[in-house]
Amino acid sequence: xxxxxxxxxxxxxxxxxxxxxxxxxxFFVEIFRADQFEALGLPTQFVQDNHSRSAKDVIRGxxxxxxxxxxxxxxxxxxxxxxxAVDIRKGSPTLGEWFGLECSxxxxxxxxxxxxxxxxxCALSDYADIQYKxxxxxxxxxxxxxxxxxxxxxxxxxxxxxxxxxxxxxxxxLAHWLxxxxxxxxxxxx
Length: 190
Known about the structure:
- It is a single chain.
- By secondary structure, the chain is mainly β.
- It has helices at 34-40, 166-169, 174-178; strands at residues 3-9, 13-18, 20-23, 26-29, 48-55, 59-65, 72-78, 80-87, 98-104, 110-113, 117-123, 127-134, 143-145.
- Strands 1-2-10-7-12-5 form a six-stranded antiparallel sheet, with helices on one face. A five-stranded antiparallel sheet has the order 9-8-11-6-13, with no helix packed on it. A two-stranded antiparallel sheet has the order 3-4.
């Protein structure tokens, strides 16, 4: 079975497309294989797997972790969701730009965003299960967020009135993040 990079965006974001074997019994797919990830330029050392379920029109994000810096590969295992990655690396030619992609249990696409990207998603179906592999362990003291509706970024979310956590309702802007000393954790290294 072969994993392939479907497309590349923003100097680091990749859409990964797995090979799927289907028949009348169901399907089989390899989600992670260290040798293929390494050949594609993806990380092979993951230390944490997460699983999140959200109701329709929930937006989670834009979140990131700077200590330790964390890369993530996200996929939707039930339902449909709009996955987003925003470049927040100082000095990056794509700083403040975003990439979004609908992922679903049907298309089985995965979205990889390296450390230095804020990530978020919006549930499009009645509920959506999102699973992600992380290269760093969760550290609440080393996490941050950017406002989901920051006009400097301009993410085109597919929902007009989202359901948000209190954390996401009060997240700072990208400009506020870039002015903080913690932003020095993410410098673009072209």
